[in-house]
Write a structure and sequence with these properties.
The chain is built from 14 helices and eight strands. By secondary structure, the chain is an alpha/beta fold.
Length: about 375
């Protein structure tokens, strides 16, 4: 048995998690609240956080410039604002983009001389980054449970993962499924597919342990039940077409999948998907789903991958073949890329470490084959 694990994040879940754990947000005297333009307000999360901070006499500054696929340049701007306002901790509210940006901003805040790519090479002492609180408003990335921040580099056509151990781990994650009620169906499905990809890719990773498999298996089963079986779909539904029970299951599953990849990282659907997200505007979760079938099919070619996939499919009450068919179908990505465009996409992500993170390691030629089969003209 291998039970190795490390995750220094305190996770608190449930309705009214913010209001019921006000003391957990008291990480300093002045917070920089990092959000996008919409979800933090629409979900009610921002109002809950500011109410709690004001009741404790904690000051705050709102930085609501985060977009999908957060720019390193915007995060650098947020770090400068931390220094200007005297913010001594950061609260990220939103989907993965806002939570990832909060981590990068915390790093830029203590690296005043770093350019947009500088935090990747800067020497950041243990404990130097500003403390981070993470409050998700989507059920997808699980960023609240791990140290990863995926940033878009200058030029806009490449992403790169930032992490600092232990600094980019949130000190506290407050997971309230109610904050996902305002999400529409399309966004809910896309983020859930991202979390499902995390669970499957963590499950297959050579870095997985018995501990990480507990979280990956739970997450995959919960998401499969809701998305593909409609479990707990009876009763009143929100504007996105989901019941409170389904929202709870997806929220906790996404967090669990985030815990799993904290140990293992992700596999090749993620880098292959990054490129079409940045260049073609395909939402991240759907982009990952587009390649998940190929990920399953290639890993079935290995003894280890085949055994693990059959074991996971048994837990889900399905088969690897059904998974490989239904996940990309729900992703619903349709592109017609030329051979030249395919090679450009692969060039952007060919050096990612994710390719080695599964029993079957695809080659450059196989990347081209996968792209051509799925998205070629």
């Amino acid at each position: 048995m291998s039970f190795d694990f490390y995750m220094p994040v305190r996770i608190v879940s449930g309705e009214n998690a913010v209001k019921n754990n006000a003391d957990a947000l008291a990480l300093g005297k002045h917070a920089l609240i990092v959000t996008g333009r919409r979800s933090a307000v629409a979900s009610g999360a921002l109002a809950d956080v500011t109410t709690v901070l004001e009741a404790q006499g904690i000051g705050y500054t709102l930085f609501d410039k985060i977009t999908e696929n957060p720019l390193a340049s915007t995060c650098r701007e947020g770090g400068a604002l931390c220094r200007k306002t005297g913010a001594d901790f950061v609260i990220g509210i939103g989907g993965g983009s806002a939570l990832d940006a909060a981590k990068a901003i915390s790093a830029f805040a203590v690296c005043p001389n770093a350019d947009e790519a500088g935090i990747y090479t800067a020497e950041i002492a243990d404990g130097a980054m500003l403390p981070i609180a993470a409050i998700p408003t989507t059920a997808g990335t699980g960023s609240e449970a791990n140290p990863y921040a995926i940033l878009t580099l200058p030029g806009g056509d490449k992403k790169k993962t930032f992490k600092h151990i232990p600094g980019s781990y949130p000190r506290i994650a407050l997971v309230d499924p109610r904050y996902t009620y305002s999400l529409n169906e399309n966004y809910t499905v896309s983020t859930a597919l991202d979390a499902l990809a995390h669970a499957i890719e963590s499950w297959l990773s050579p870095k997985s342990t018995d501990a990480s498999e507990i979280f990956a298996g739970y997450a995959a089963r919960e998401i499969w039940d809701v998305l593909f079986r409609g479990a707990d779909g009876e009763g009143a539904k929100d504007a996105g077409g989901f019941t409170p029970a389904q929202r709870r299951r997806l929220s906790y599953a996404a967090c669990a999948a985030g815990i799993a990849i904290n140990r293992t990282g992700t596999g090749f659907p993620h880098p292959l998907g990054y490129s079409i997200t940045l260049s073609e505007g395909i939402p991240h979760g759907r982009a990952c789903a587009a390649f998940e079938g190929a990920y399953i099919e290639y890993n079935l070619r290995t003894e280890v991958g085949c055994a693990k996939l059959h074991r996971l499919a048994d837990m889900l009450g399905t088969t690897p073949g059904e998974m490989a068919q239904r996940i990309p179908a729900m992703g619903d990505v349709h592109l017609s890329l030329t051979s030249a465009q395919i090679e450009e996409h692969i060039d952007r992500v060919a050096g990612a470490g994710n390719y080695a993170n599964s029993p079957y390691v695809i080659s450059r030629d196989e990347m081209s084959e996968i792209y051509a089969k799925l998205l070629g003209m």
